[in-house]
Amino acid sequence: MKCAFCGHEFDEKEARQGCGACPGGCHSVHCPKCNYSNPLEAKLIRKIRSLFTRNDDQGGDGA
Amino acid sequence: MASCCANQTEVSNRGDTLKRVVLVGNPNVGKSVLFNALTGAYVTVSNYPGTSVEVSRGNATIQGRSWQVIDTPGMYSIHTITEEERVAREIILHETPDVVLHVLDARNLERMLAMTIQLIEAGLPVILVVNIMDEAERMGLKIDLNLLQERLGIPVIGAATARKRGLDQIRSALASYASGKEGAAPMQFPYASPLERNVQEVVGLMKGEYILSRRALAILLLQRDEEIVSLVREREGEGYAAIAAKVASISFERRESFHLDLSLERNSMVRNLVKGAFVAPDTRVVTWSEHLSRWAVNPLTGVPLLLLVLYFGLYRFVGDFGAGTLVDLLENRLFMERFNPWITGWVKEIVPWEIIQELFVGEYGIITLGIRYAVGIILPIVATFFIFFSFLEDTGYFPRLALLVDRVFKRFGMTGRAVIPMVLGFGCDTMATMVTRTLETVRERVIATILLSLAIPCSAQLGVIIALLSKAPGALAVWGGCLMLLFVVVGLLATRVLPGDAPMFYMELPPMRLPQVSNVLTKTYTRMQWYFLEILPLFVLASVLLWLGKVTGFFEKAVDAMTPLMASLGLPRETAVAFIFGFFRRDYGAAGLYDLQTKGLMDARQLTVAAVTLTLFIPCVAQFLIMKKERGWKVAGAIGLFVSCLAFGSGYLLNQVLLITGLLT
Ligand SMILES: [Zn+2]
Ligand SMILES: [Zn+2]
């Protein structure tokens, strides 16, 4: 994902464990570069999105 | 060339298993994107030894060969000025790159080519990446990359790394460098005769082995680059005296004209280079986002723009619409008129004990107070705030705001970087306090923590207060003025009192763009979801505690104890309740104030004094705990005490001023 503050692109999984200090559990993905807390996409949204995304959006860099 | 040989020997000493490529270029040309594309996931980011500058390193496998990729901080020239530039040059000087990848922005090709010339002149193995080609093409710029390659004598690759364009060419250019296929001697760029003669005179005296070419070093010596001076002094030993004398005599002879001559010469070199290779349309198309970006960063236009953003975003949208219209709808129409009477009747019917009825539907009942505050007052306010916040975030405005405020924040011992916690503080101070750990120095962290706990209201509190005060003309201005004044005074004082220097700030600006509705909505939904998960239990707990306080009579005693304090601020006794709420959560306190105003218990002056005191007043429990966790008991305790005294002191003073001047009456 891309940090909404500094534009740094990073792997979501890498950053997720990075924080652990947000009150009430961390619900955000902290940018490894600037530590801006990007909101972690809610499950509901993720599901809705997966219904609408076409295949070409999910290709990643495999191709 | 001696420099090249020196380079080669060191390379072969290291063995040819691990090649090294260093990315250099101005800030904001897409280096980081290219870095990420080359390296993938395995990246380490660490401070460069002895500095606060971060350098990213990662590994890449290119055509079967392992590479180390180093991303350097932005630099404008080999003649370094900032700490970032010094670090970038240190890396070139001491990490003996096999390839220096100079990334530049195609839209500003002419301005940025000067550094390419410097890199070639320094004898470095340069590959030029002309990035952001897609934007340049959209603007109608035509760039002849082949002609440029021919004139520069180094590989030139057109790319749009954000769109993964040109990556393969970059990889194969790296691979052919590694296998020694790129043997062609780089171009020489001679200067006009007097300048060229001066450079040659200095070069002729140099004997040592260097990574940068003697020619480049001679020019840097003539520019009085201190690090290069000491490097040359060290390498040349006894011969240095002659060089120093030569440099001094040339400087004397040319007076100050050396820098000017050099830059004029380089400009004309670049002009020759791009002649026919870079064609801009007659009327250059400047995209609206470039305009906006420039306006946002320039203080003359940036400050009015910020005020506009705040007026329409916070005042009109969050204040008027969210905290006005929507709260009225939910709180008054739904809760007060319909839901509360209904649930109260219902609970009283099925629960026989009054004390339990009170717990749920009483004055401080979980449902009639806790849920009502959360859903009726806080929900519409944070919803509108998060929409506004996510919208701004999506435009890419925040990093520009950081640059804009950098020069102001410097006076407070912070850098523009501190805008991140400050901006987040308007969302929730608790979260923001935690984010202060991203600031570079302990001093900056402490200052930011103080300012956060003092003068930055969180979103819900802000919304409620704006809604409250916008009904009394002038009140909002007085409130805003007081906060600004304290922010500035405390910031300035903190810088004086706390030891240490303000660190440097540097940031690459991602492009500005039109926000996408889906992005804004999903972010808003996500933020609201976790916000509610977090606050609902707290509101319920606070209600229970308040109920306990009421049942045991403790609450009454606390209000009694605070009555003299409230009286000294010129506030009615009931305001103590809002302050006690505020201790649980900032927004809870503000909601309490909202309640009091609805009941008609306060006039404009009292409202303003209460709002100022409550905003400044001690951070909520959660923020205090995070402060303790981040800064330790001593610092957190000191900040808490300081902030509370300052809050009530300011409230007292403000009340006196308002009474004497008769303002707001
Ligand atoms: Zn970031
Ligand atoms: Zn977190």
UniProtKB/TrEMBL annotation, chain A:
It comes from the Bacteria. This is Uncharacterized protein. It comes from Pelobacter propionicus (strain DSM 2379 / NBRC 103807 / OttBd1).
From TrEMBL, chain B:
Mg(2+) binds at N36, A37, T39, G40. GO terms for cellular component: plasma membrane. Belongs to the TRAFAC class TrmE-Era-EngA-EngB-Septin-like GTPase superfamily. FeoB GTPase (TC 9.A.8) family. Keywords: Cell membrane, GTP-binding, Ion transport, Iron, Iron transport, Magnesium, Membrane, Metal-binding, Nucleotide-binding, Transmembrane, Transmembrane helix, Transport. InterPro entries: Fe2_transport_prot-B, Fe2_transport_prot_B_C, FeoB_Cyto, FeoB_GTPase, G_FEOB_dom, Gate_dom, GTP-bd, P-loop_NTPase. It comes from the Bacteria. It is a multi-pass membrane protein. GO terms for molecular function: ferrous iron transmembrane transporter activity; GTP binding; metal ion binding. Probable transporter of a GTP-driven Fe(2+) uptake system. Coiled coil: none annotated. The keyword Ribonucleoprotein does not apply. GTP binds at residues 25-32, 50-54, 71-74, 131-134. PROSITE patterns: G_FEOB. The chain crosses the membrane at residues 295-314, 373-392, 412-434, 446-470, 476-498, 530-549, 607-626, 638-664. This is Ferrous iron transport protein B. It is found in: Cell inner membrane; Cell membrane. Residues 18-180 form the FeoB-type G domain. Gene3D superfamilies: 1.10.287.1770, P-loop containing nucleotide triphosphate hydrolases.
